[in-house]
Amino acid sequence: MFGRIGKALWEALYGLYFFIFDRFFIYPIMRAASSVCQITFMNLGYALRTDEEKIRDFTEKWIPTTDADYNHILLYEKCLSMHPSYPSLKGISLLEIGCGQGGGISWLKKTRKELSALRGIDPVVVDSMNGMIRKGSADALPLQSATVDLVINVESSHLYKNQERFFAEVFRVLRPGGHLCWIDLRHDYEVQDPYTQSKLAGLVLVESEDVTAQVVEGIKKTAAKYDKMLEKAPWIARLFSGSLRETYCAPGTHSYNRLTTRQKLYHCACWQKGAQ
């Protein structure tokens, strides 16, 4: 009995620590490290299945597989691949919610010149990219209603304090017929929550996929890169090396093991706002 209580208490304290760390410490640390380590992406990464030729063919036109950001970019492309017109996004107005340091926005600006508009929203703006990225909250988007064709959200929504409001805001800013492409992780007991929350917001599920295994394979690539970066990082980043390794789910960490044992799951989905 006491063993179960102790384990539950440890899990609760562990979760509370990383809840606080991810929300209040990770961005200042990453800002300090980014100038030295050239960090542009903060997602876990993705490794393609053999049958995902469409994603592979498009991505490798723009970036070699040996590039340090390759697996991070694949996570973006996997998310975008859920859109019915992928890989072309011609004439589409795109908004990324939770765009972090702007790595995804930079990639889209380079590879999707056919977009009619490209914007990003994040609570901490490291680089506004000439106004392309604005400061804002996912549960109170600083945009007018029905002004966006496609919202993407990459490994971000699990940090939101009001996820129901996030989906409601996405519904509000989407034009009728617009799409939300989303990719993120949840505890096994929470994995259905985004599907319930999006439905309550009025979004209609188009497609979803469990991509946990591909993310685990991607982590093996990205974590090796980050481990090398930590060796050269400023002292403040090295001071939190254990917490940072948990954040990017390095093999051997508790967070990595929760993915391999499927205590946490990684899903990708696309929803549509109905025509009105």
Quick structural summary:
With 276 residues, the protein is of the alpha/beta class. The chain is built from eleven helices and seven strands.
Explain what you see.
The protein is globular, with a radius of gyration of 18 Å. It has a seven-stranded mixed sheet. It has eleven helices and seven strands. It has a domain of 133 residues: Rossmann fold, CATH 3.40.50. The protein is 44% helix and 19% strand. It is an alpha/beta fold and 276 residues long. Helix 6 packs across helix 7. The chain starts with a helix and ends with a strand. The longest helix is centred in the N-terminal third of the chain and has 23 residues. GO terms for molecular function: sterol 24-C-methyltransferase activity. This is Methyltransferase type 11 domain-containing protein.
